[in-house]
Amino acid sequence: MSDCRICGGPVQEFFDFGPQPVSDVFPKPADIGTEHFYRLAVGFCERCTMVQQFEEVSRERMFPADYPYRSSGSALMRRHFEQAAAHYLATELSGPDPFYVEIGCNDGIMLSSVQAAGIRHLGVDPAEEAVKVAGASGSRVHVGFFEEATARRIRETDGPANLIFSANTISHIAYIDSVFAGVHALLAEGGIFVFEDRYLGDIIANTYFDQIYDEHFYLFSVRSVQAMAERFGFDLVDVEPLPVHGGTMRYTTARRGERQPTPAVARWLSKEQEQKLAERATYESFGAKIESNCEELKALLTRLRDEGARVVGYGATCKSATVTNYCGIGPDLVPFICDSTVEKQHRVTPGSHIPIRPPAAFSSPYPDYALLFAWNHAAEIMAKEQEFRAAGGKWILYVPDVHIV
Ligand code: DWN
Ligand code: SAH
Ligand code: ZN
Q1: pLDDT per residue as tens digits for the range 33-90
Q2: Where do the DSSP E strands lie in 199-341?
Q3: Burial 312-325 (b: 16+ CB within 10 A, else e)
Q4: What is the 383 CA–ligand 2 centroid distance (Å)?
Q5: Angle between helices 176-186 and 222-231 (to 10 degrees)
Q6: How many angstroms is it from 44 CA to the middle of ligand 3?
Q7: Could you identify the atom of ligand 1 that is nearest to the CA of residue 167?
Q8: pLDDT the model gives residue 34
Q9: Relative to the CA of 212, which of 38, 172, 266, 316 has its CA 20 to 30 Å away?
Q10: Between 320-327 and 280-306, two packed helices, what is the crossing angle to 10 degrees?
Q11: Class of the 145-277 domain?
């Protein structure tokens, strides 16, 4: 049991993955064995229901200057953020001289659309190499961690922000109190703080256990985000489900009393009641499903290897660290993983040490099976790899359960 990082309530552990490596640091072959391990265990708060980890990995370890993830590696995600930008350019950013701040802008996948519209903006992200990509295309960026002090400096130099936006980042920040204090200091009167993160309801319903890794310190639900917002002087005023990353929820918050919640908030709160998201039994059966899926995946890969079939991995995702390390999947079962991210190629996966190769390795020659670690991009990837299927290739997926398509 430990104290909740949001409300101080008792956090009940429901799953322990044991020692796991920092997931988005891919060692060079010569640096194998230098990975940092921590205890990956998750629990839910009996008071505010926030699902959270017990051990915090330092932000400098998780998000170094050469952090390899590049948001723009997916056409689906580029379209997603173009649509998001268009929406806010027509609403929150349509007034006189609006100012847009983005927390976790990465390579500018969202920021670049706001910049192209000529709107005053600032992206904040510690991943210096990724941020350089955003800066090179003309976006205004600050390399650093968003927290209260950062926000106060931005307020002094740029004035209040009409929209503070963040995607797949707020759930990565254990020190969330400082983030909300910063948003409180930086947000214009009547402004909104919008963040989207993968949704706990979808993770539970589909056993997306690989979404649990060091960076995802919190797994948000509507109820836990509402409790978090209220604790820090905000109201949750709208929620919107989005079909990316396996199921994402976009949360809109405003300072307490400034906006009326839409009916969607109450609707999703009752959906979560029906899904029993605040009940221990839900997490116990989730844990049982994780164990059985992992056993089934390991058994399938072992059988295919023993039958002489060739299996390669597709997409060296952050998520793959939990799958490969918890299920005990190494190069003996998956000789390599192909990935389009140059910064990951010719390195190995953390802990499981599976070599990462450029996309060309996938088709020379095609394997019998491809284990799809980037399952959240399945439509885009399978459409791109039609020839693999035409050559008789099959995809192995492990969510929502182990199956071959
Ligand atoms: O939450 C997070 C999300 C937004 O991104 C971060 N904590 C870190 C990261 O998680 P991830 O690595 O699991 O994200 P993706 O987007 O599932 O990673 C996809 C991987 O697959 C990338 O390394 C790129 C690669 N890829 C590929 O090789 N060919 C992706 C596509 C679409 C492709 O066609
Ligand atoms: N928004 C992008 C990137 C998400 S990956 C997308 O949705 O694809 C998470 C990003 O958050 C990384 O680029 C990481 O460097 C950044 N990050 C982590 N902690 C942060 C903090 N405190 N302030 C700003 N960015 C942070
Ligand atoms: Zn709590």
Answers
A1: 999 999 999 999 999 999 999 999 999 999 999 999 999 999 999 999 999 999 999 9
A2: 218-219, 234-242, 248-255, 311-314, 337-338
A3: bbbbbbbbbbbbbb
A4: 28
A5: 60
A6: 8
A7: 4
A8: 94
A9: 266
A10: 70
A11: alpha beta
Query: What is residue 5's predicted lDDT score, i.e. its pLDDT?
Result: 97
Q: Is the CB of 170 under 6 A from ligand 1?
A: no
399 Cβ below 6 A of ligand 1: no
- Per cent of the chain over pLDDT 90 is 100
| pTM to 2 decimal places | 0.98
CATH architecture of 281-404: 3-Layer(aba) Sandwich (3.40)
Closest ligand, as measured to the CA of 143 = 2
Report whether residue 23 contacts ligand 1, using a CB cutoff of 6 Å. no
Stretches in the chain below the pLDDT threshold 50: none
pLDDT at 2: 83
What are the residues whose beta carbons fall under 8 Å from the beta carbon of 396, sequence distance 6 or more? Answer: 297, 300, 301, 311, 369, 370, 371, 372, 402, 403, 404
Q: Which residues line ligand 2 (CB under 6 A)?
A: 59, 63, 67, 69, 71, 103-104, 106, 109, 124-127, 130, 145-146, 167-169, 172-173
8 A C-beta contact, residue 11 and residue 18: no
- By most ligand atoms within 8 Å of CB, the mutation choice from 107, 172, 186 for ligand 2 is 172
Per-residue CA distances from 147 to 155, 184, 185 (Å): 12, 11, 10
Taking CA atoms, 162 is separated from 96, 183, 184, 185, 187, in Å, by: 10, 11, 12, 12, 6
Q: Which amino acid is at 130?
A: A
Q: Which ligand 1 atom is nearest residue 210's CA?
A: 13
pLDDT attached to residue 1 = 72
Per-residue tokens: 341: 């991210």
Structural domain boundaries in the chain: 145-277, 281-404
Enumerate the H helices of 3-138 as residue ranges: 59-62, 75-89, 111-116, 128-136
| Number of the ligand 1 atom closest to the C-alpha atom of 198 | 1
Tell me how far the alpha carbon of residue 160 lies from the centroid of ligand 1, in angstroms.
33
